[in-house]
Amino acid sequence: MRLRQNQLCPIHRSHGCCGREPALKEKRVRQMGVRRIYDPHHPRGYREIRSNGEMRKLMDRKIAAQNGECALCRQKFTDYSDIVPDHISPRGMGGAWRDDHPDNIQAVHWWCNGEKGSSRT
Asked: The whole model's pTM is what?
């Protein structure tokens, strides 16, 4: 995930780190927030789909809750752009099509997520 221009890095607590370059981009209007999709086959009875902004906020909370370390390899995060969300119960293991509920997401390095693939931790 990439840091936004005005977003404070949760690892270094600064605005000028992790190779961030100021770039002017075209702004697009997107639907924001968390959508709840009711699914009778899901144990909770619903799934959540988060927008990019909401997923970024969730990832910032997860990084803080995990004390700045990867949930899979337990190494400290050094660069925010190396962090990706990982679904604990992935679709390939019988999980929902897409469930971005906070209980199903953990912060991991992108290479750890690639090695894990479609398996449970």
From this structure: 0.67
